Amino acid sequence: MAVSSSSWCGALHQYAPTCGAWHPIVHDWNPAIRIGVLNCADEQNTAICRDYGVQFYPTFRFFGANTKDFTQGENYKGETDREVQSVRHVIIDYLESLPAEHRPTACPSFQPLSSGDITSLFIRKKPHYTAIIFESETSYVGREVILDLMQFEHIVVRRALDSNKAMMEKLGVVSAPSCYLIHPNASRGLINIVNPLRSVFSSHLKSLPGVRKKAGAHSALPEKLPEEDKEEEVTWKDYDKSKLYTADLESALHYLLRVELATHQTLEGEKLKTFKDFVTLLYKLFPGRPHVVKLLETLQEWLVSMPLDKIPYDAILDLVNNKMRISGIYLTNHVEWVGCQGSRAQLRGYPCSLWKLFHSLTVQAAAQPNALANTEFEGDALATLKTMRGYIREFFGCRECAQHFEAMAKESMDSVKTADEAVLWLWRKHNLVNKRLAGAPSEDPESPKVEWPTPELCSACHEEINGLHNWNEKEVLVFLKRHYGAQEISLKYAD
Ligand code: FAD
Fold it and tell me: What region holds the ERV/ALR sulfhydryl oxidase domain (predicted)?
């Protein structure tokens, strides 16, 4: 199984107990399923992520055993939620679904025992323990314990269904899940476990006398790409929190055009429309340097001139990368985070810059009411928000973030009537996200997730009414227009 993740994806930092520590998910299941993790946020992996068609994170891909030819793997059961337990259950379902030729030879049987099978276990003495987990048909406990113990010697684990009432009664099993144990000396009985959880059953069975890991058992550690262990060094750049940096905005454009969107082989349908809208908006509103705006204009004109309803992304990349540099029209080809730098390499960066990019676009739309004249957005106060919504829905790699944003948009975006309201809507929603994520693993201690702007940045934005904090939204709007306005942007660190 391969998991494609993204080191910047905030939602995946919460997921880190799963991503970073695959250990507990499939601890000891290695002969049946091996896990590899691929970081698609790393530009070096863009091509391979594209080959495998990975566009959102996390993506789980399953590959049957003995697969020789290239395959993109299987998105088994579509999107898996990020709970460790759900991932384990999906793995089990997948293993059970495999045809014999793709089932790993080491994969144990999950087939429930019949009454006859159980009785025959009592007849002949075995040189090992046999544990039978009685459970309901929908329970995963038995199959998980079977996999947990598959690399242990002196024990075999099987499962039986609680629908076999007669056998349960005969053995004195009164509830499910329960574990019935047959000792090597043929004595047998129910294990007395108060808390009938998979982990409790497994650790009890592993602690039985003589039960130990088989010599040469596979390591429980997941397959890792070499760079996974490396903690990238961060060279800190001094910056002013009250400023917006061109380097962050241009790095956002570089990343989304050359990494995030580049995972697509072609753009068509809703994706192509969203991309065209986004480029139109950028060309008209991006508060960047002339050589970047000219590139956006060229890209927009090229897209409009293309009569195709399907565009290979390589053609877009070709235009962004090569055609223009000679004439002094170009976009930086690497990220240079300044106001978005993290104290560790996997913190902040791209999602931070995307927020900043969209805040600055809403502010530009409010500051230049005629900027979108003669485009299909003319007179549309919702143009920037709608385009942002489309981009996040169609392209933003962090699926969980996209779902949350879509829910917020659905709830109230339509109530926005003016460009100023659009600026404030996005500010409010961003603060809601900050509030929700405060204290989350994605929080950089150097940049805590607080409601923003802080009093140090804008004291007039904060008031108290009857002893309670209140935003002065008029002042907030003035502040946002200044902070994200074109005049205030710093060129420091922009190459
Ligand atoms: P960010 O929140 O990225 O903010 C970047 C900068 O914007 C701040 O440094 C500050 O200068 C400014 N800023 C802060 N608040 C505001 C505001 N209210 N108005 C204007 N400017 C402000 N991560 C998750 O884990 N779960 C999610 O559901 C999720 N949803 C997201 C949805 C979207 C649309 C985006 C773009 C990102 C989302 N993320 C989510 C990522 C997360 O919001 C942060 O971007 C990421 O964790 C990096 O945080 P940061 O500390 O750099 O600050």
Answer: 343-452
What residue type is assigned to position 164 of the chain?
Answer: N
Tokens standing for residue 482: 């200044």
Q: Quote the ligand 1 centre to 263 CA distance (angstroms).
A: 23
Ligand 1 centre distance from Cα of residue 348 (Å): 8
* Pocket residue to mutate for ligand 1, from 352, 361, 478, most atoms within 8 A of Cβ: 352
Nearest C-alpha neighbor of 352 from the set 4, 6, 7, 8:
8
Token output for 285: 């509103």
Q: Which atom of ligand 1 is nearest to the CA of 14?
A: 25
Residues 444/390, Cβ–Cβ less than 8 Å: no
What is residue 25's predicted lDDT score, i.e. its pLDDT?
A: 63
pLDDT for 226 equals: 46
Note whether 4 and 36 are within 8 A (CB).
no
Q: In sequence order, which residues have a C-beta less than 8 Å from that of residue 386 and are 6 or more positions away?
A: 277, 380, 413
List, as one string, the DSSP characters of 179-194: EEEE-TTS-EEE---S
- Choose among 193, 141, 136: nearest CA to 162: 136
Under 8 Å CB-to-CB from 261, ≥6 apart: which residues? 267, 275, 313, 316, 395
Query: Where does residue 376 rank: exposed (0-12), middle (13-18), buried (19+ CB within 10 A)?
Result: exposed
Cβ atoms of 383 and 281 closer than 8 Å = yes
Q: Whose CA is nearest to atom 43 of ligand 1?
A: 433
Task: Give residue 4 CA to ligand 1 midpoint distance, Å.
Answer: 22
Q: Helix-strand-coil percent breakdown of the chain, rounded to 5? A: 45, 10, 45
Identify the residue whose C-alpha is closest to ligand 1 atom 27.
Answer: 401
- How close is the Cα of 156 to the center of ligand 1, in Å? 50
Taking CA atoms, 330 is separated from 74, 240, 300, in Å, by 38, 27, 14
Type of residue found at 356: K
DSSP string computed for 452-475 = SS-TTT-GGGEEEETTEEEE-HHH
What six digits make up the tokens of 187? 């004595």
Report, as ranges of residue numbers, the positions in the chain whose pLDDT lies below 70: 1-25, 27, 76-83, 217-232, 323-326
In terms of DSSP bridges, do strands 178-182 and 188-190 run parallel, antiparallel, or are they unpaired?
Answer: antiparallel
Residues within a 6 A CB radius of ligand 1 = 10-11, 14, 340, 348, 351-352, 354-356, 359, 392, 400-401, 404-405, 427, 430-431, 433-434, 437, 440, 442, 444, 447, 449, 452
Written as one letter, the residue type at 290 is P
User: Which of 376, 382, 373, 251 shows the shortest CA–CA distance to 303?
Assistant: 376
Omega within 30 of 0 (cis) for the link into 445: no
Within 32-124, strands assigned E span 36-39, 59-61
- The two three-digit tokens of residue 468, written as one number: 């309670």
